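Progress against Task 2.4 (sequence-to-structure conversion) is shown through the following example record, which the project officer requested during the mid-term review.
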Amino acid sequence: MRDSSEARDAWRRAGAEVGIAGLLVPESLGGSGASLVEAARVSEVLTAKLATLPYLGTAVMAPSLLTAVDAPQAHGLLESIADGTRIATVGWAGADLSRPRPDRCRGDGPGTRVSGTFDHVVDADLADMLLLVDDGGQRIVMVRAEDVAVHAHRTFDLMRPLSTVTAHNAAGLLLASGSEARAATEAMVAAARLTIASESAGGAEAALTAAAEYARGRIQFGRPIGGFQAIKHMLADAYVASESALSVARAAVRSHVLAEPDAAELVALACFYCPESFAAVAATNIQVHGGLGFTAECPAHLLRRRAEADRQLLGEPDTHRREYLAILAGEEADT
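Structure tokens generated for the chain above:
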């Protein structure tokens, strides 16, 4: 599991020196005012470098939620996110916003109280502030991490633990409710899904590069193993999967940002195709490395772990595949 103090320090440096923390924060609030296109490309690189930074929760999910909310406190938190002084993340019901939640919010404004449990919260182990989405996206409440119980779990993905956040009548601040909260939550979900698709595409490219480099340098029977037909075919298939994942992810992000007619179709496609391609290429990387690929000393297993986690984080591939097919069926019915 990642070291919390080191990850916090690295993130604050990244916010102050590199600026990735504020990519999606408006320029008026100290951020870069970039779009999800740029944020997605950063996620590709961070996955390839096996970074343990709280990028998904703090740089993508929290800003995507906060920028869609018209509240002074949201603007203040965005400023703190942009300069790296605060780490924030989102606790919510999961990919299916229609699923009822047992969580309870009472009161309005600074008098809001929150009770309930939020599972699988990304980057909560590092967060100072938590944005809790209650009642199927109908309320967004900001609470301090010190006012709730955060239990980090050691998950299959060693680079990104997930946490259970439990609130017992915790003091919070209601940022949005009703249609405003619902729209903000939907924007956050779309951004998170596309970021995961993009990091999957970047991870697939990294796994392919690692496999090809090892195949060029590993000598067996007096020649590089990359010269053997079986390895050639494996790498060729991995190349097709990697390049296709990059193309699909980037097309989906661009289409979503530009609100193009085929955006929903491409997003659904990216959500199942990219993580599955990542898993396939990461498995090939381990196979090319042979016995070494199964050891903890070889980083190949870290990419494989991230690939499997990405397949499950915001909905299983079959869920997105059914969504994609439903969109296609609807288009055919309209023609």
